[in-house]
Amino acid sequence: MAETINLALFSYPDEKRDSIQYPWTRGSYSYATDGRILVRAAADPEWCERADAPNADKVLDQVCWDGPFYRLDKIIEQLPPRERVAAIVDGNLIDVETVEVAVSVSIGGAVFAAHYLRLAAQLPDAELGFGKAAAPHGLRFDGGIGALMGMRDTYTRHIAIALDSLEPQYRAPTADDYTAAAQKDALA
Question: Is the pTM of this model over 0.90?
């Protein structure tokens, strides 16, 4: 049985974009997005239907679900560690915290922000797929699917991960690998 997904992690918490400020439900799925990452899981009664929410299945329809997928935990292992930072005020060390320094990552011809890879890796058994360069890249995980947009440019701090350093995950597609529209076509 799939574990409950904390969809709020994938929302855009700013009131300026209230249509994606909170997760929402449409039909038998609940969704969350911040405009760069999108997650779909089984309907969660915590999130209500909202007419102003975007049509997330339209984005998922653009994902190439046939390509190889790679385990996100193996990708994360190759990222630089988060950095510890501190400030010295009046000779005292304060505000020690771990922060995510902006790092971009090239993988298989696509560029991603490292913090989005780490975020997606929080999904259970998460895998990242590669298809067309300009299209959203597929996310599949225990309990749902999603999409991750690549970046156009790189950050000052940039690393590359060779696909041949990762083991592709091949499995037969399941109903969760397709959007509601594709499922309807398959059942017709």
Answer: no
